[in-house]
């Protein structure tokens, strides 16, 4: 009698049918640009998560004697800022708020914008007209102007900046969601589902969502880079994160006075914003071409 | 064509009304009393009430909105709370400066972007194409306010070639088209041009690659047309879309110039918005946003109209 070893038992191996998403992942895994961008973003997220454990100095510790020291001064690897705080530690901890403020508005706008757009696209008719014309009004503002108008009127602060950015990103996402949904709605399988007696909710859940969320998601990822630049821009203007919290845009603003004394130290927070937004753009581009079935 | 144009104009009217309503709402979503900025803390109730009446904050919402809209249509955007001067005067002075900067930036961005886009599209999938694509990704990813700072560091602090901030010697607002003034425009305009450059390069690259792959190009080649002749055909086919993208980019720059203007202390609408926000001067904020948003809506209308007019392929 052989003992049955659960671990060694040959599990029946089914070749999972190569679905659309596994194909996309395979394509992404073969794209060196996508791998590079994803690695950079992963590193930034890890730094943000573990910032309190790995910062070499206290990011809030000021020192009047060690203000604006150059890169590589003593044990301050990237120098110190205008209040003598260690810049490397602040850049690390700053990743938290900067990434949070860049990503969260797009995430919320993805959920709300998709819901609005799918509702309008599926309902059609008068409801569609009403919803989409309202969205068009917000869409009629250039995004930077809308963000600044809203947070300027609401006042500075993280919550208000998040709210303004979310409102900025809802209209473009809703527009994409509406147009994709309208296309899917006219397809035969939706017609068939309706003929077989499925209710509106079931049709949307089973037949529409699976077909529209992919394209909307890809579009939303392309907005994250814009959102990063805009969110840091609001803080740069003094409309977002308030001192002494570290955030890259705010740090760039307070270091502006140092561009003559320590130019390279002053430019560093912007380099972080740049690296992050480039990585998001490249990853989003790769994702889009991987999802393009024609290739 | 005429029919399409009429429909497009009719469609723009409710959008403009909506935009105006949104600008009106801005004052009402802001927390606190809009008059707080100018009232001394020990102001009497009497004075407070007088100012409320003066600015119209004591009337009902619809009354305030239509009153405000009616006055705005006649060119009266209210009075700045901080300076006491008419908002319209302040805004129109600033719009000129912003427009000047944005037009120059769009022009630079269009010329460079088309150049890169053409080269990349002609030699698609070569190293030139990859370099041009990389450049356009950099252009759309760069935080332009940071790029502005780097420009100042390199060209003002380091090389000393160009002035870092302002719009003329001695901070005067007497603009003149001589080098003494134009040199102040170079850094902000070049910084600003990076975004449209990236976007236009992307658009033109896709257009050119698409056009070159079409059968009529093969036909022209087969007929023995020279490369320069084919080039003219490509330009003719790509121009309407590229020009439309350029027009829209100008609109985005007009609305988005606040960050660049802040970096370079350029006395445009961005600068005005900045001071309106930090002095809590809500009528000024409202008026500036209204004018910029209307500019954008009208520019969109103009771009659509021109595109329909010059591109015979668009049947509407």
Automatic annotation (TrEMBL), chain A:
One of its GO terms (biological process) is transmembrane transport. It comes from Pseudothauera nasutitermitis. The chain crosses the membrane at residues 33-54, 99-124, 144-170, 216-241, 261-283. Its main location: membrane. Pfam families: BPD_transp_1, OppC_N. The keyword Cell membrane applies. Belongs to the binding-protein-dependent transport system permease family. It is found in: Cell membrane. This is ABC transporter permease. One of its GO terms (cellular component) is plasma membrane. It comes from the Bacteria.
Automatic annotation (TrEMBL), chain B:
InterPro entries: MetI-like, MetI-like_sf. CDD domains: TM_PBP2 (cd06261). Residues 95-307 form the ABC transmembrane type-1 domain. The chain crosses the membrane at residues 9-29, 99-123, 135-161, 181-201, 242-264, 284-303. GO terms for cellular component: plasma membrane. One of its GO terms (molecular function) is dipeptide transmembrane transporter activity. It is a multi-pass membrane protein. Keywords: Cell membrane, Membrane, Transmembrane, Transmembrane helix, Transport. It is found in: Cell membrane. Belongs to the binding-protein-dependent transport system permease family. This is ABC transporter permease. The lineage of its organism: Bacteria, Pseudomonadati, Pseudomonadota, Betaproteobacteria, Rhodocyclales.
């Amino acid at each position: 009698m052989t003992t049955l070893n659960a671990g060694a038992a040959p599990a029946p191996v089914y070749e999972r049918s190569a679905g659309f998403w596994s194909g996309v992942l395979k394509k992404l895994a073969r794209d060196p640009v996508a791998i590079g961008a994803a690695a950079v973003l992963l590193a930034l997220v890890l730094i943000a998560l573990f910032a309190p454990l790995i910062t070499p100095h206290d990011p809030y510790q000021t020192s009047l004697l060690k203000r604006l020291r150059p890169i590589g001064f003593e044990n301050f690897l990237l120098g110190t800022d205008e209040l003598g705080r260690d810049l490397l530690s602040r850049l690390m901890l700053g990743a938290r708020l900067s990434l949070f403020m860049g990503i969260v508005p797009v995430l919320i706008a993805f959920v709300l914008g998709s819901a609005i757009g799918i509702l309008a696209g599926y309902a059609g008719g008068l409801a569609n007209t009403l919803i989409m014309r309202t969205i068009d009004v917000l869409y009629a503002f250039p995004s930077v102007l809308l963000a600044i108008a809203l947070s300027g009127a609401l006042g500075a602060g993280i919550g208000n900046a998040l709210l303004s950015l979310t409102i900025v990103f809802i209209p473009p996402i809703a527009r994409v969601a509406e147009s994709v949904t309208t296309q899917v709605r006219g397809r035969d399988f939706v017609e068939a589902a309706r003929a077989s007696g499925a209710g509106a909710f079931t049709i949307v859940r089973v037949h529409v969502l699976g077909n529209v969320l992919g394209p909307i998601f890809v579009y939303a990822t392309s907005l994250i880079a814009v959102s990063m630049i805009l969110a840091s821009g609001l803080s740069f203007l003094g409309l977002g994160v308030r001192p002494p919290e570290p955030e890259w845009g705010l740090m760039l603003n307070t270091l502006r006075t140092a561009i003559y004394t320590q130019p390279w130290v002053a430019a560093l927070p912007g380099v972080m914003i740049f690296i992050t937004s480039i990585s998001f753009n490249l990853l989003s581009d790769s994702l889009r071409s991987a999802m393009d079935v024609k290739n | 064509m005429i029919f399409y144009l009429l429909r497009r104009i009719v469609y723009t009217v409710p959008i403009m009304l909506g935009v105006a309503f949104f600008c009106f709402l801005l004052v009402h979503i802001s927390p606190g009393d809009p008059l707080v900025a100018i009232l001394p803390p020990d102001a009497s109730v009497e004075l407070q009430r007088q100012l409320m009446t003066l600015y119209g904050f004591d009337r009902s919402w619809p009354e305030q909105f239509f009153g405000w809209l009616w006055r705005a249509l006649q060119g009266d955007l209210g009075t700045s709370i901080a300076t006491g001067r008419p908002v319209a005067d302040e805004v129109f002075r600033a719009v000129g400066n912003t427009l000047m900067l944005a037009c120059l930036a769009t022009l630079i961005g269009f010329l460079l972007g088309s150049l890169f886009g053409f080269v990349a599209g002609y030699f698609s999938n070569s190293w030139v194409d990859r370099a041009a694509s990389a450049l356009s990704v950099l252009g759309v990813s760069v935080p332009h306010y940071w790029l502005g700072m780097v420009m100042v560091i390199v060209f003002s602090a380091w090389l000393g070639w160009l002035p870092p901030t302002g719009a003329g010697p001695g901070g005067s607002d007497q603009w003149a088209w001589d080098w003494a003034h134009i040199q102040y425009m170079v850094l902000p305009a070049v910084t600003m041009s990076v975004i449209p450059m990236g976007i236009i390069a992307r658009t033109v690259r896709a257009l050119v690659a698409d056009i070159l792959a079409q059968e009529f190009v093969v036909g022209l080649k087969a007929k023995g047309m020279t490369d320069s002749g084919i080039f003219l055909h490509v330009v003719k086919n790509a121009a309407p879309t590229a020009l439309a993208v350029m027009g829209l980019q100008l609109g985005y720059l007009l609305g988005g110039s606040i960050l660049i203007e802040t970096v370079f202390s350029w006395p445009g609408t961005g600068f005005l918005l900045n001071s309106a926000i930090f002095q809590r001067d809500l009528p000024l904020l409202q008026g500036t946003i209204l004018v910029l948003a209307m500019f954008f809506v009208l520019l969109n209308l103009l771009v659509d109209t021109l595109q329909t007019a010059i591109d015979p392929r668009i049947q509407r």
